Each structure stands twice: as C-alpha cells, then as structure tokens.
Amino acid sequence: MLETLQARFANPNVKFSLRDRLIVIDIGNDFGTASLTTYGGTLLSYVPKGGKDVLWVSETAVYDGSKPVRGGVPVCWPWFGPYDPAPMGADPTDAAKKAHGFARYEFWEVDEVSRLPDGATQVILSLGPNPSIAKAWPHDFRLRLAVTLGDKLRVDLIGQNLSPRDWVVSEALHTYFRVAEAEGMAIRGLEGIQYVDKLQGPSLLTQTGTLRIAPPLDRVFVDHTGPITIEDAGHARAIELTKDGSASTVVWNPGEDGARAFADMPDEDYHAMVCVEACNALKNSYTLRAGEAHTLSMTLSLAS
Ligand code: TA6
Fold it and tell me: Rounded to whole angstroms, how far apart are CA atoms 125 and 300?
C-alpha cells in the first residue's frame, strides 16, 4: 500500500508512512515541513522553516481510525457541531449523525501530489460517498482538501453538491494551535464582532477590545471574514490566520474540566492549545445548490 502510493505519487518532497493504522503524508521543502493523514483529511503538523510547530496534537491522540486524531486540523463537514435536523429534515436521534459531520471519521483518497511553479508542494485528498456515509448523508457529493506548503501554509476545503437537491452546509477547519500558554493570551482581529458564547446561551454578544483567553471558552463569532493574529508570546511568535469563503470564526479552549473529560487529551494541555477555526456556522451556514461547489480556505503563517 505504502509502496504503491510512493510510486504513484513519486515526489522528492513527499513521503508516505504508517502510524498505527493511519497513512501519514510528510511534506518537506524549502518553506518548512507539514504532515497530514488520509484519516479524516487531517493536517497534523506545520513547521515553518526554522520555527516550531504551529499546530498542537495531543500526546494521547489515537491513530487507529476509531475516532478523529485529537489535534491538528480536523475537517468538520457537512455540519459543524451537533447535527441540526431542521435544514435537511432528517431524524435528529440518528446515531449516524456524529458531531461535526462524518468527514473527520472517514478514510480519504490521495488524488494528487504536485510541485507548483513557485516551489510550493501541494497534496490533494478527496472523499466521496460510501455505504457508511450514506447512513448519515444519503446525497452524492465530492469533498476535496488541498494542502499547499509554500511561503504560507494554505488549506482549501472544496465541497461539491453532486445531488439533485440543495443542502444546507455548516463547516469548519477546526485548527488546534500550539501555544506556550493559552491563559491570558491575546487573539486579535475579533474586536467589535458579534458572537454566541456556547457556554452561556444563544444570545448575541459583542466582543469589546482584544479577546484574551480565559479557559474554558467556546465562542462562535459570526459575520467575521477578516484576518486573525494569535499572540503566542511565550514562543516569541505571532501566528497569522487569513481566510476565504468563511464568514464565522470559532475560538475554543476546553479549560481544566473539559480537558479532563477527554480521554485523548492530557489534563494540563488546555494550557498548551487554543482552537481558532475558519468556519461557516450558525447564521453563516449556507445553501449549497445542486451542482454547485463552495471553497473554504485558510492560510497560516508567522508574522514577520
Ligand atoms: O469548535 C469547538 C467545539 O465545537 C466545542 O464545542 C468542543 O466540543 C469542540 O468543538 C471539540 O469537539 P470534539 O467533538 O472534537 O470533541
């Protein structure tokens, strides 16, 4: 299997390996390194040249394909959070409707590996219907994830509706950032933006001033398309996130009790991570018309 992939997608900057039951694709070029797994189409690491990993992955994450890897960039699609039956008119008690959608639980195919004219390396994965997905989502679709390691790291999630009916989609690139200390750290770019605090209730609040992380925290910022800066002061760096095709941004840290409740996260690691997610959620969920496609993109880089 690995030999077949390596031969089919031969590229000096890309290597395939196995971690427990998951295929891992390591990319290394003049811009740094990145790795992803075909399970869930999950990006696991991004190290800009000469820097530290921008992404956090739990030391107790599971790599056997029984559940998503805790960390990196899980793909939430075609719904974000618990399944909301209202838009699609399905049974809300259906166990197949896993939180954050089915895409992060599936084994994706490798579609393309290429070198772009600017020297960047691009890996494209894809996912299509199968009998297990059909239990949750009986609609024809194609989902593609392009990971491009260039002077920035770019992730494009392209969802295509190949069915005869329109759907409502919510989605996220659920990015776990590695930080030296989450508590008190600043996230800039959300000033004045309205949000729903999932720990408090459904009312819309407004972010006054810079957001400082006080775990636990779980906020969905709506109608937000701008860039974000994560001030990782303890690592002497600022991480910049830009997005496209995304009208909401989620900021999440599980806090002490939340971390304890996860079997696949060390108790103290809520200090070492924060999720900042390029999303389309709540009022920014959208209708993907029959035959159409939508691209949700983000880029990550270090501020210079
Ligand atoms: O994006 C934040 C969130 O929706 C939180 O509410 C929290 O539950 C988190 O995602 C992790 O979800 P997971 O299903 O991966 O444990």
Answer: 19
Question: What's the pTM?
Answer: 0.96
| Domain limits for position 56 | 2-302
The pLDDT tens digits of the residues spanning 140-177 come to: 999 999 999 999 999 999 999 999 999 999 999 999 99
Tens digit of pLDDT for each residue in 88-102?
555 545 656 788 999
The total of structural domains in the chain comes to 1
The ligand 1 site (C-beta within 6 Å) comprises: 81, 99-100, 174, 198, 218, 250, 252, 275, 277
- For a pocket test of ligand 1, which of 252, 257, 269, 276 has the largest count of ligand atoms closer than 8 A to its C-beta? 252
The CATH number covering residue 153 comes to 2.70.98.10
